[in-house]
Amino acid sequence: MLTTEQWIERAKNLRPKADLFIDGKFVSAVSGKRFDTLAPRDGSVITTVARGDGADVDAAARSAAKAFESGVWSKTDPRHRQAILTKFSDLILANREELALLESIETGHPIGDAMNVDVPSAARSFRWYAEALDKIYDEVAPAPRTALTLITREPLGVIGAVVPWNYPLIISAWKLAPALAAGNSVVLKPAENTNLASLRLAELAFEAGLPAGVLNVVTGLGAEAGQALGRHPLVDKITFTGSPAVGRMFQTYAGETNGKQVALELGGKSPHIVFEDVADIDACAEAVAWGIFYNAGQTCHGGSRLLVHESVHDRLIEATIKVAKQLKMGDTLDPSTQISAIVSERQLERVLGYLDIAKNEKVDFALGGNRVTPAEGLEKGYFVEPTILTNVDNAGRIGQEEIFGPVLAVTKFKNTAEAIELANASEYGLAASVWTQDLTRAHKVVREVRAGTVWVNTFDVADIIVPFGGFKNSGFGRDRSLHALDSYTALKTTWINLGSDEPK
Ligand code: NAP
Ligand code: MG
Q: Whole domain around residue 184: which residue ranges?
């Protein structure tokens, strides 16, 4: 691993490509407009990015549709797609330092996480779907002997992928890998704050042999480029991760245009439910602290609520504070940093706004609660201390709303029924965890909790092998696993008349 000084030196010398990637080339926006992208660690301008709008989305969607119809990718032998996606995965790993730096400098993810989590996870997604794609068989239905009925999967066409800023590489890979593996063409619209790693990713895909037009990236603003993609008639499906409000806009865009499919993965307010018989308070505290403070709390399934039995409340809070105090907050580019900046000034203000709300709700600040400067020279960076709020009313704004920062809301319960009620008393249902030694209770609680993922005696362990998505206002789309691959295909029925059952 490079040293902090070496990373800072590399960051200074970065000359990232920040135009639109359309039809296999970097191009300026038709309007010629650009916008600044900033480094959360110190608020400095990294570079300017092309501000694509409807005209650019149209060019990208046409390029994607043309590539799809030509069959250069969509009609190729699965083994050809496998070879190219495998090479792409290898190229991601071969360019790990560059991708990690682009991701880290723009998102504020600690460089160590970008190197060890973001880049390898993205590479693994492409490799996993590449490996899978020649191992999936279609179906023959049990028709009478006078017919042969085939159920086959075909790619959908053009996929519009709209992603947030919290994990640009990982979330893009969760969408692009299955969409491309299935033979679709894609137009990716990254979040306006985080474009650079995605643009490099598209360039590497092209270098790996992905034909021009099969993967396009249109950077720009949500209301311009995002909306244009959502409304484009050549787009067959939108796969979206972000806020519930914008997710619903995509449903409206689809309804008002071509009725394209829309898959939504939205936010969460995921609870840990800790019972009095939790086996190991320290292990639980470790999971609770990392579950909310990792990536400064900017994780859609982050464990932002802690529901804890009153008899273990004090011990668990004490242990969680101990872990939180040991987490090293620091410069994004310091490899020893464990927690770093919030993505943007806007999100910083939003988190600080919630801390003011917390003061009005009269919750107790057991830890943190302030903006900080973790190192010299980072005074303008967007840093918030790990914060633990106790005696939170689950029905109040702190208990209900997605803060998307390093803020844990703690509420006590007295019995299992109350724990389940509190867990489900949320508009969200993305994830939850249950901590108990009682296997029967664990299974019963898992069944009752309305969430797309429920962990038992752990938190935030995940992999491409299992689906990820929500219930309720957390959306209904599922990224990861073979189910995601399936969601980028359409079923075709072929009914072949074999005439009479007499052998010829
Ligand atoms: P967002 O506004 O929902 O943005 C998600 C994506 O949609 C971005 O690419 C965004 O582009 C685009 N978009 C925004 N407005 C649009 C519009 N009117 N039409 C079409 N596309 C549009 O989410 P955000 O601003 O990144 O974060 C807001 C909140 O969403 C967070 O505080 C958090 O609560 C939640 N969130 C959830 C997740 C998750 O993984 N579930 C991730 C991030 C955020 P621009 O970036 O250009 O606006
Ligand atoms: Mg936004």
A: 4-266+475-491
Query: Which residue shows structure tokens 């994830």?
Result: 431
Q: How confident is the model at residue 503 (pLDDT cuts 50, 70, 90)?
A: low
Compute the distance from residue 404 Cα to the ligand 1 centre, in Å.
Answer: 12
| Residue 368 within a domain | yes
Domain annotation covers residue 461:
no
Q: Is 502 exposed, middle or buried, given 0-12, 13-18 or 19+ CB atoms closer than 10 A?
A: exposed
**Ligand 1 centre distance from Cα of residue 266 (Å):** 9
Question: Are residues 217 and 353 both part of a single domain?
Answer: no
Give the closest ligand to the alpha carbon of residue 195.
1
CA dihedral 230, 235, 236, 239 (to 10 degrees): -50
Average pLDDT value for the chain: 97
Please name the residue whose Cα sits nearest to atom 10 of ligand 1: 222
What single-letter amino acid sits at 405? G
Tell whether 466 is covered by a domain: no
Residues 253 and 294 in one domain: no
Angle at which helix 168-181 crosses helix 119-132, to 10 degrees, equals 10
- Please report, for the domain that includes residue 181, its CATH number: 3.40.605.10
Which pLDDT score is estimated for 43?
Answer: 97
Contact yes or no for 315/284 (Cβ under 8 A):
no
Task: Judge if pTM exceeds 0.85.
Answer: yes
CATH code of the domain in which 322 resides: 3.40.309.10
| Residues with a CB atom less than 6 Å from ligand 1 | 162-166, 189, 191-192, 221-223, 226-227, 230, 241-243, 246, 249, 265-267, 300, 402, 404
- Within 13 Å, how many C-alpha atoms sit on residue 92's CB side? 31
